[in-house]
Design a protein that fits this description.
With 262 residues, the chain is α/β, with parallel strands linked by helices. It contains 10 helices and 10 strands. Helix 3 runs parallel beside helix 6 (161-173). The chain is globular and about 55 Å long. The protein binds adenosine-5'-diphosphate and magnesium ion (MG). Adenosine-5'-diphosphate binds at residues 15, 18, 20, 38, 40-46. Keywords: ATP-binding, Nucleotide-binding, Transport.
């Protein structure tokens, strides 16, 4: 695990008779942008849910180098416990608090997120003024980096989809993660929004000591961005390699054949 941040070993999980993930292994280097791709239904989100222990895998181990440098097996841990150790994620469907402003949503990210109580946490935070101003300053720095400072005091409700995606990513950065997992971040974005997201992800890689696991079915999006890619179908490994290797891989091409528009 020398220069690895995550090591997934022989991961399997079945729903009823369906093997959604089948003996899958891959690992991610420190500072790497790693893609997990596959057609719709391939098992990508299930892998994501196993890593964050939202699902309990039937078999396998998931080793993670935490933000204190120790290596821990995530299997059996609680989701919020894992997030506190430096592994954060954004969802395929955006989860933000529409009634709060942009900067307030980012500030919530400073606390180990726990969906149901996000709103309450924000108001608890307001009570400790000093802490609040320190967190607000960091939130504004991150927003500035993402080109969102000018809308910091606007409500989240009504913001365009591409902006919501950026806000969600900004919130994840508040925890100073070792690894960020993004589940289909480009889904629903138009071309210019996608380009802007690609640039932000590149900047995150350059400026932070952080790895990114990019889960995506769109090959075009991952090719220009990832150092290495793992392609799966029917929960099974097809290939791991550079974007060029994956693009040229026959098994991957067959898996994607006729599924480009899914
Ligand atoms: N909670 C669940 N219960 C039953 N089947 C599930 C569940 N989650 C995912 N699946 C099934 O597992 C397979 C992989 O799904 P998913 O991981 O969402 O694929 P992807 O994210 O690659 O599109 C699909 O056949 C899906 O229907
Ligand atoms: Mg999915």
């Amino acid at each position: 695990m020398d220069n690895k941040v995550l090591k997934v070993e022989n991961l399997s999980i079945a729903f009823g008779g369906l093997k959604a993930v089948d003996n899958l292994s891959f690992d991610i280097d420190e500072g790497e942008i790693f893609g997990l791709i596959g057609p719709n239904g391939a098992g990508k989100t299930t892998v994501f849910n196993c890593i964050t222990q939202f699902y309990k895998p039937d078999e396998g181990d998931i080793y993670f180098r935490t933000n204190t440098g120790e290596v821990e097996n995530l299997v059996g841990k609680k989701t919020h416990e894992i997030i506190g150790k430096g592994l954060v994620r954004t969802f395929q469907n955006i989860e933000l608090i529409r009634e709060l402003t942009v900067v307030e949503n980012i500030m919530v990210g400073a606390h180990v997120e726990f969906k149901a109580s996000l709103f309450n946490q924000f108001f608890r935070l307001k009570k400790t003024r000093q802490e609040e101003s320190r967190i607000r300053k960091r939130a504004e720095e991150i927003l500035d980096h993402m080109g969102l400072l000018s809308i910091k005091d606007m409500l989240v409700a009504g913001q365009p989809y591409g902006v919501l995606k950026k806000i969600e990513l900004a919130r994840a950065l508040m925890l100073d993660p070792k690894l960020i997992i993004l589940d289909e971040p480009a889904a629903g974005l138009n071309d210019s929004e996608t380009l802007s997201l690609v640039n932000i992800i590149k900047e995150i890689k350059m400026e932070r000591n952080c790895s990114i696991l990019l889960i995506e079915h769109d090959m075009k999006f991952v090719n220009g961005l990832c150092d290495r890619i793992c392609a799966i179908n029917f929960g099974k490994l097809l290939a791991i390699g550079t974007p060029e290797e994956i693009q040229g891989n026959e098994q991957v091409q067959i898996a994607y054949l006729g599924k480009e528009d899914d």
